[in-house]
Structure formats: C-alpha cells, structure tokens
Amino acid sequence: MPQHSIALIHHPESYNHVQPFPKPNLEAFDTPLRIQVALEHLKKAGMLEQIRKVQAPRAEPEEVLLVHSPYVLDSVTLMSHLGSGELGEAAHASPDLLDSVLLAVGGAMRAAELAMTKDVKHAFSLMRPPGHHASTSTSMGLCYFNNLAIAVKHAMKQPEIDRVSIIDFDDHFGNGTAEIFYSNPHVQYISIHEYDYENMGLGHGDELGHGDAAGTNINIPLVESSPDVSYQAAAERIVIPAVEKFRPSIIAVSAGYDAHYADPVGNMNVDSRTFWKLGNAVNKLVDKMNLPGSFLALEGGYNPFVMGPSIEATLRGLNGEPMPKLEDQLDRVDQEEIVDANENILDGLLAALEQFW
Ligand SMILES: [Zn+2]
C-alpha cells in the first residue's frame, strides 16, 4: 500500500456559508460545526497523520454547467450577491454562499482527479454545503450545486473513465443525482435510503432508469429505523453485485452520515460499524475489479459528535484496516419486523433487476 493511500480534501472557507435560521429550521442543521468537530475527532484519532491533506481548489463557475442549467448558476450567483433569499425548498442564500459552493464543487473535482490519476487510492472531499438533492435545474434540500455529479462529469472527460458507479448511502434519496444520470447508460446510481415523505414521491425501487439507461438507476428504499444488519444486507445482496455487473472505470460515493442513530434529521438506526463496512466494500470492489480507486464527497450528517467516528470508520474501511471500536457503537436491539420488511424490499428489487443482469 502506498504511504498515503487516502487523501482528505478540505478548505477552511467552506465554513463561511451559514444559514440565517435558528433551530428548529432544517437549514440550521448544516453548520460549520459538522466539519470542525469531525476534523477535531480525526486529529485525536491519529488519522490526520496517516492521510494526505489537500486544500480544495475553487471551481470555475462554468464547471457547474457540466451538470446544471445556466439558471441555477445565475440564481445562486445573484442571490449570493444579494446575501439572502430562497433558491429552492430548504435552500437559502447567504453572502458567502457562492464562494463556499464553488469550493465544495472544487473539492469533489479534486477528489476525482486524485483517484483517477492514482495519486492516492481513495480521496474524500470533506466540504459543505452538500449536493445530492440539487438537480439539473433546481437547488433544494441544503444543496445548491451537485458537487459529486459535477466531479463525475469532470472525470468522464478523460477517455479512460467511460463508466462510473455512484454509491449514495446518505439517509435521503439523492433525487438530484438520480435525475441528472437517469437517462445516461454510462453512469450507474445506487442509493440506499430511508423511504419517507421527504423523498417527494421519488426513490421507489421501480425507478430503474430511462431508455438505454434502464437498469442503471437502483433505488434501495429501506423502512424507517432500519438497523446495521439491513444496510449490510443491502450492500451484500444489491450494491456489490450491481457494481460488479456494471463494471465501472471508477467508483464515486455520496457519503452522508444522517442514517446514524444519533442524527437529528434522519430516522435510521445504524452506527459507525455500517460506515466501516461500506468503506471496506468499496475498497474490496476497487481491488477485485482492478480500478484506480474511488472518490467520495460529504453529503448530510447533522450530529457533529458522530460525524467524526462515522468518517473515521469509513476511512479505515477504505484503507483496508480492521473495524475500529468507536465510542458511538452501542448494542441496540434489531426489530425483527423491520429486518423482515427490508428483506422483502430487497427480494422485490432483485427480481426487478434480474432482467438487466
Ligand atoms: Zn441526507
């Protein structure tokens, strides 16, 4: 293993965009503390010496157009200059918004570059605001530009990157990323998410992609309060075989941590052991398929005190290290009816995917 097989991409100015709302507004949850406390944890855990630290570059505004309509770029730019206003549902402007979002896009693009050139094996962009709810033409859900989708399109400018698998384990359905690639047969989007009203009527298992891309959109909607064992089943039964069948040139990950049991927004019941398993699964897929590596961008995760252990677990999984024992790992009782309901969902999804495999 190279000395630095993992890079962490960061920029302190990603702290500057602050939503103007007091709790309990949803916007109040995406605070700079999410990243500051996580970094403090990674430092104490000795992770920062093990990994390569890279400062995020600022993306050029035109790079946003790889994915978004000019309307999205123009409205974020204008409202950021105005310093306030609503860009979409739960997506408000602040005076530092444009700078922060261009850094978040730049961080994800840099992560893609580091992984595809084999500078490191895995590159994680620890930036905010998140991106996976932003669609071609709309900012929403704390997301303005779709950082990871832009990084995927950026990577695909290189001829050797002609197929990308995206794994999204944020608590919520990444409606923006799914929409952006829904008709693109070269990009596979796999989302494990909590199925609930926040998905705006989307995120069902029967949304499989359009035209030539049929079979490349894979939604795994698990029920509320799903435990670690259901995430493991989703990974083993669907995510891993789906990526192996698709045979991507590289893997991209939307890494959201709001499925953690202690998260104030998501309603799932997993701890950092699930995030280690997902990181470990990505690393094994990279090795098995002889890929250059993977790149990850932070999505949600709103309890600053569990972001650190969750990200540490992901990085150790990616690095091929054993599962660490971390302070958030509590034994909780799995509700049998929830585990059974999820198994039925996975059975139905596998039956629908068979025609493409
Ligand atoms: Zn989320």
Secondary-structure blueprint:
Blueprint: E1 6-10, H1 33-44, H2 47-50, E2 52-55, H3 70-82, E3 86-88, E4 91-92, H4 97-116, E5 122-125, H5 147-155, E6 164-168, H6 175-181, E7 187-194, E8 217-222, H7 228-246, E9 250-255, H8 272-288, E10 294-298, H9 304-318, H10 336-353
Parallel strand pairs: 1-2, 1-5, 5-10, 6-7, 6-9, 7-8, 9-10
Antiparallel strand pairs: 3-4
The protein binds zinc ion (ZN).
The site of zinc ion has 7 residues, from loops.
Précis, in short:
It is built from ten helices and ten strands. It has 357 residues and is α/β, with parallel strands linked by helices. The protein has a single domain, classed as 3-Layer(aba) Sandwich (Arginase, Chain A).
Written account of the structure:
This protein is 38% helix and 13% strand. β6, α6 and β7 form a beta-alpha-beta unit. An 8-stranded parallel β-sheet has the order 2-1-5-10-9-6-7-8, sandwiched between helices. A two-stranded antiparallel sheet has the order 3-4. It has a single domain, classed as Histone deacetylase domain (Arginase, Chain A, 3-Layer(aba) Sandwich). The chain has 10 helices and 10 strands. α1 crosses α9, α7 runs parallel beside α8 and α7 packs parallel to α10. The chain has 357 residues and is α/β, with parallel strands linked by helices. The protein binds zinc ion. The site of zinc ion has 7 residues, from loops. Zinc ion (ZN) binds next to loops.
